[in-house]
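User: I'm putting together notes for a lab meeting next week and I want to include a structural view of one of the chains we've been expressing. I don't have a solved structure, so I'd like a prediction I can at least talk through. The sequence is below, exactly as it appears in our construct file.
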Amino acid sequence: MAFAERFLLIANPKAGAGRAGRNLGALQTALSNAGATFDVQTTSSRGEATTLVRKALADGVRGVGVVGGDGTLNEAINGFFDERGAALPTSAWFAPFPAGTGGDFCRSLRIPTKIEAMVAHITRANARPIDLGWAEYTLENGEKEGRAFLNIASFGLSAVVDRAIESLPKQIGGRATYFVGALLGMTRYKPAPIAVSVDGEIERETEALTFAIANAEFFGGGMHIAPGALIDDGLLDIVGLEHVSKLRSIAMSSAIYSGRILSEPGITHRRARRFAARTLDPAVRIHVEMDGEAPGQLPATFEVRPRALLLRA
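Assistant: Thanks for the context. Below is the predicted structure for the 313-residue chain, given as structure tokens.
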């Protein structure tokens, strides 16, 4: 079944070391052959996808397709909210066309990466409501900011790795990029004491290499950090690598990629609606990342917004 209405296709041509731009023509042809009608807009700067989606929704568009990686998808879904975080009044659907370095959200959905198979998968799918995460974190100047995340938010080593990846050439491939970024992050990140709280419970103190607050299953270019996480259960999966040394985390690599991470020593797992974290030393900065972007730092809160988006995939 083809798309029933005209939609907007937003593409980040730089995603996947330029792969998105190189394949855009072939994707358009495949969509047209599948009976879809659409308009195309490309992004040229960070944050532009958010602006394009907000304008399209204000103009009454019925669907938004996004070509890019997890960062571009994150920008786009934030266009379904206004600057204060309120959901915009729309029944438009959202469809991801994977073309980035990591592609972790689309990996959870098992969306094919070959263009013809990808188009067949998405055009035949019905729109369904899914959850989003919402994070409120602290900026460098101490102010608070809020942002939706589609896939996974995390803090600790993972955020340091994301910042390291920004300086790496993406031509070496997704998994290799994240592997090199992880090695660089290991040399730069030192765990510090934090206080965490789940669903408003009394805070507990801990030390963690990484906490992942997961709406879906994968992050970091294929790491299966939250096996069993569902995008429509009204909950977030909170996975902590607590009191795990850097050396031990390297030894866990096989378990992380294979989805056996939750059975490893030092791993904690809860499903919750809300999670909060802060550093115990105000002088220590622990950065937060979400969907591959690192916009702020602790203290931060993360909560689920059930059925916040109509996904077609």
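A couple of points you could mention at the meeting. The first helix runs from residue 19 to 33. The CA atoms of residues 256 and 278 lie 25 Å apart.

User: Perfect, that's what I needed.
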